[in-house]
């Protein structure tokens, strides 16, 4: 059974899971497409599945920032932002709308990459890292729908060196964490039941499952040729 405050839940993973300690901490944060709020709706304008909100990691080295970093990152972002689903998701909130590329992506790099010692190419390599090792469920943003008795996942974070799961309530009704936690397709036609307890959610919502059922469906080029077989096997 989950125990929670209204806005924040921490579940210690040591009770059910053993993780390999990675060489450094990193996090990949994803917004799911849908019509639940402005950000999910904005994501839906670009993808039926997900958008990469941000990546963050520990400082790696004392690299000196270079004047060319800004222009190099702009060029790389312009080339790869669509294949990464790396879109600006607050256009509806901005007084001065930002184009899809590349001011947001460059600002992201400066804040989360350049200041941590990553060159533009090293930062892009982190964003495009689809390897499955050392990626564990780190946080979930949920919205509870009383009429459906469901906690719907809207945002997902996978992190390395994770020792706990954080759950954040997304507005509306107070979460009822004894009810099912689910993923909804962007059109609301399919429901994936992730679990009825912290243990089930942690065990079922792996990065492998998310990659096969979301990333590979949007970008099969980054996945194994037989990923469709995995989709059938892993689908809940």
Total strands: 8
**Amount of beta strand:** 15-25%
What general outline do the C-alpha atoms trace? globular
Oligomer: single chain
Relative helix content? 25-40%
End-to-end Cα distance, whole Å, is 20 Å
What number is the mean pLDDT?
Answer: 82
What pattern of helices and strands is seen along the backbone? Answer: EEHEHHHEEEEEHHH
Which stretches are low in confidence, meaning pLDDT under 50 for 5 or more residues running? 1-22
Largest sheet descriptor? 8 strands, mixed
How large is the radius of gyration? 18 Å
Tally of DSSP helical segments: 7
Number of structurally distinct domains? 2
Helix/strand/pairing class, anyone?
Answer: alpha+beta
Description:
The chain is an alpha+beta fold and about 240 residues long. The chain has 2 domains: about 120 residues, no CATH class; about 100 residues, no CATH class. Helices cover about 25% and strands about 25% of the residues. The chain is built from 7 helices and 8 strands, in the order E-E-H-E-H-H-H-E-E-E-E-E-H-H-H. Strands 1, 2, 3, 4, 5, 6, 7 and 8 form an 8-stranded mixed sheet that branches. Helix 2 packs across helix 3. The longest helix has 12 residues. The radius of gyration is 18 Å and the shape is globular. It starts with 7 loop residues before the first strand and ends with a helix.
């Amino acid at each position: 059974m989950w125990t929670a405050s209204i806005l924040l839940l921490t579940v210690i993973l040591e009770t059910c899971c053993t993780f390999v300690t990675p060489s450094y901490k990193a996090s990949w944060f994803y917004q799911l497409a849908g019509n639940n709020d402005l950000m999910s709706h904005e994501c839906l304008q670009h993808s039926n599945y997900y958008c990469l909100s941000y990546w963050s990691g520990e400082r790696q080295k004392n690299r000196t920032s270079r004047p060319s970093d800004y222009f190099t990152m702009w060029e790389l972002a312009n080339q790869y932002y669509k294949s990464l689903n790396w879109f600006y998701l607050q256009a509806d909130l901005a007084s001065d709308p930002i184009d899809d590329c590349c001011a947001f992506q460059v600002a992201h790099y400066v804040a989360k990459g350049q200041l941590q010692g990553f060159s533009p190419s090293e930062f892009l390599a982190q964003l495009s890292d689809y390897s499955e090792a050392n990626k564990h469920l780190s946080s979930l943003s949920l919205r509870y729908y009383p009429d459906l008795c469901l906690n719907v996942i809207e945002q997902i974070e996978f992190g390395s060196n994770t020792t706990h799961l954080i759950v954040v309530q997304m507005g509306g009704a107070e979460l009822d964490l004894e009810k099912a936690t689910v993923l909804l397709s962007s059109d609301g036609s399919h429901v994936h039941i992730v679990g009825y307890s912290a243990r089930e959610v942690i065990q079922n919502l792996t990065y492998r499952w998310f990659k096969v059922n979301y990333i590979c469906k949007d970008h099969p080029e980054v996945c194994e040729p037989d990923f469709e077989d995995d989709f059938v096997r892993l689908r809940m």
